[in-house]
Specification:
CATH topology: Farnesyl Diphosphate Synthase
Mean pLDDT: 93
Strand order of the largest sheet: 1-2
Radius of gyration: 18 Å
CATH class: Mainly Alpha
Shape: globular
Largest sheet: 2 strands, antiparallel
CATH architecture: Orthogonal Bundle
CATH superfamily: Farnesyl Diphosphate Synthase
Low-confidence stretches: none
Order of helices and strands: HHHHEEHHHHHHHHHHH
Oligomer: single chain
Number of strands: 2
Strand content: under 5%
Helix content: over 70%
Length: about 290
């Protein structure tokens, strides 16, 4: 169920992104935007569209929010890979944007993808009520800016030069912002579009986002670049405090499993209709088990 739905979501989102990018022609920045939005797991898009389907919202509507979060996520990766940030040369198994083009193009690509994300949320196909579309614009701005992802990135950068290692609570807060904020926004799109209570999916996404990051930390230790599509071992090289460095490999795995159980429990009000979301929670840690 989950894998089929994930593939279906990816196809719909890629079609939507292609439609948004079509008017831009073949300028280098447009080609680099297409390149940056290719591939990836599309977990955030899946959460958008599955949470929407759970609340009776059609794919034709929710795909615009799914495309928005994937465009914004792609922008964050392009900028995160820059030499002044994480300085990565490999992403999704391909050269990063600044390597394939140049740093200036990568900066502009990220800027343009961020703008395009919010443009997607203004589409009337998403919801007939402009106030609902505006609510999603505002909440995505909070989740991606200095109240969310950007603040998490800033805390991460500051930790790299700090003389004191982060505590477990500090890492948890950092990752709840850097990774969890967009995952949380994605899961809450469905109830927002339907005018329903987002609390169960908020709890689900909080646990899921943290499990996702712990799995990434584990992959940085146990994975290989051929499988992950990006460089591994970076955290240890940089001396960064991670869930693995603080909890140990087995402790991190146990914590991830516990969080998945929390995520599944949060879906109890939805019964069997939420099975694909339960599978998604199990998927995020199956990448490293």
């Amino acid at each position: 169920m989950f894998n089929d739905r994930l593939r279906d979501v990816a196809m719909q989102v890629e079609s939507c992104l292609a439609e948004m990018l079509l008017p831009l022609g073949t300028a280098p920045v447009a080609e680099a935007m297409r390149y940056a939005t290719q591939g990836g797991k599309r977990i955030r898009a899946f959460l958008v569209m599955e949470s929407a389907a759970l609340h009776g919202v059609s794919d034709a509507a929710s795909v615009w929010a799914a495309a928005a979060v994937e465009a914004l996520h792609a922008y964050s990766l392009v900028h995160d890979d820059l030499p002044c940030m994480d300085d990565d040369d490999l992403r999704r198994g391909q050269p990063t944007v600044h390597v394939k083009w140049d740093e200036a193009t990568a900066v502009l690509v990220g800027d343009a993808l961020q703008a395009m994300a919010f443009e997607c949320l203004t589409r009337p196909e998403l919801h007939p009520d402009p106030s609902i579309r505006l609510a999603l614009v505002a909440s995505l701005a909070r989740a991606s800016g200095a109240q969310g992802m950007v603040m998490g990135q800033a805390l991460d950068i500051a930790a790299e030069t700090s003389t004191e290692s982060l505590s477990l609570d500090q890492i948890t807060r950092l990752q709840a912002l850097k990774t969890g904020a967009l995952i949380g926004w994605s899961a809450e799109v469905g109830p927002v579009l339907a005018g329903d209570d987002p609390e169960p999916l908020r709890r689900y996404a909080g646990a899921l986002g943290l499990a996702f990051q712990i799995a990434d930390d584990i992959l940085d230790v146990t994975g290989d670049a051929a499988k992950t599509g990006k460089r591994v071992g970076k955290d240890a090289e940089a001396g960064k405090a991670t869930f693995v460095s603080l909890l140990g490999l087995n402790g991190a795995r146990d914590r991830a499993r516990s969080l998945v159980a929390e995520a599944e429990a949060a879906l109890t009000p939805y019964g069997g209709k939420a099975e694909a979301l339960r599978e998604a929670a199990r998927f995020v840690i199956s990448r490293e088990m």
